[in-house]
Write a sequence for this structure.
C-alpha cells in the first residue's frame, strides 16, 4: 500500500540511499580534521632532536657530495693539513704530474708548487698560528710531468670543520693561460698523450665503459671522463668515437692491433 507523501518501493530503488554510520559520542569525532594531528602535542613541547644515527647519516651524505664535487671541479685542488702535507688531491691537479690523486698524498705542497714571492707565506703562517680563518693569494710556478714550466695563482684558504677543530688548508690553483710565443709547443707535442691517457684511450677503443676503464686504471668513472674530456678539448674531438679516431691518426694507439694498445707498448697476445 502506498502512503501519500512517502516514496514508493520503486522510487526508493531509483536513488542511492544514505549509508548508516555508527553513532559516536559528541566529544569523540569520527575523523580527524585535515591538517590536524590525531593526538595534539602539549603547547610547551620542544621538537625531538635527531638521533646520532640520523646525524651520522646526514654527515656521510654531505661528505660524499663534497668528495664528488671535489673530484669534478676542473681547477687543480689540494686539501692539506696546517703544515701543508697533502691529504687529498683532485684529478685536475694530479693530471699536471701525470699521476693518480692518491699518489700525491703525504707530499708537501711546497714540493709541488714554488711561490714566486716566499714572503707571501708569512701572513699565512701567522694566520694558522692565531687560528684566523681567511684566504691568501700566492703567485706560484710548477714543472709538469713533461718538463713544461707553468705559472698561476694559488688561493690558500684556512678552514676547519668546527671552531675548535684542527685547521686545514684548501689550495685552489688557477693556471695562467700559456702565452702564444715562439716557444709554444709544436702541434705534434700538443697531440701527444700521457701514458695514463693512452691506456684510457686503448680501453675506450676496445668498447669499455667509463666504469670498466676506471677499474682497470685505478680511477673513478668521473676521473676517466675528466681525462677523455680533456683530450677531446685538446684534439678538437666532438665525441668519443672521433676522439679514438684521432688517437689512431696521431699515433697514440698502435695500428693493426687488437685489443687496442698504446703505440710503442707491448702488444696484447689475444682478445680480452
Amino acid at each position: 500500500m502506498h502512503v501519500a507523501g512517502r516514496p514508493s518501493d520503486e522510487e526508493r530503488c531509483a536513488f542511492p540511499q544514505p549509508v548508516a554510520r555508527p553513532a559516536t559520542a559528541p566529544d569523540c569525532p569520527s575523523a580527524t580534521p585535515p591538517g590536524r594531528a590525531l593526538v595534539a602535542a602539549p603547547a610547551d613541547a620542544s621538537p625531538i632532536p635527531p638521533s646520532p644515527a640520523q646525524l651520522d647519516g646526514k654527515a656521510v651524505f654531505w661528505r660524499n657530495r663534497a668528495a664528488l664535487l671535489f673530484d669534478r671541479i676542473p681547477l687543480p685542488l689540494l686539501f692539506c693539513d696546517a703544515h701543508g702535507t697533502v691529504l687529498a688531491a683532485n684529478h685536475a691537479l694530479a693530471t699536471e704530474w701525470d699521476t693518480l690523486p692518491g699518489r700525491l698524498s703525504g707530499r708537501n705542497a711546497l714540493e709541488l708548487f714554488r711561490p714566486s714571492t716566499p714572503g707571501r707565506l708569512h701572513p699565512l703562517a701567522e694566520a694558522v698560528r692565531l687560528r684566523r680563518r681567511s684566504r691568501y693569494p700566492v703567485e706560484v710556478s710548477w714543472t709538469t710531468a713533461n718538463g713544461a714550466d707553468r705559472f698561476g695563482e694559488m688561493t690558500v684558504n684556512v678552514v676547519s670543520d668546527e671552531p675548535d677543530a684542527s685547521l686545514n688548508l684548501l689550495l685552489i690553483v688557477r693556471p695562467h693561460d700559456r702565452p702564444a710565443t715562439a716557444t709554444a709547443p709544436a702541434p705534434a707535442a700538443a697531440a701527444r698523450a700521457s701514458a695514463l691517457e693512452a691506456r684510457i684511450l686503448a680501453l675506450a677503443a676496445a668498447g669499455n665503459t667509463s666504469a670498466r676503464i676506471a677499474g682497470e686504471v685505478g680511477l673513478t668513472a668521473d676521473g676517466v671522463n675528466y681525462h677523455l674530456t680533456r683530450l677531446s678539448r685538446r684534439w678538437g674531438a666532438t665525441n668519443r668515437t672521433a676522439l679514438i679516431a684521432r688517437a689512431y691518426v696521431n699515433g697514440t694507439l698502435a695500428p693493426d692491433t687488437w685489443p687496442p694498445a698504446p703505440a710503442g707498448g707491448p702488444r696484447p697476445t689475444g682478445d680480452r
Residues 52-72 form the longest helix (21 residues). The chain is about 35% helix and 15% strand. The domain at 188-249 is CATH 1.10.10.10 (Arc Repressor Mutant, subunit A). Residues 179-187 have pLDDT under 50 and may be disordered.
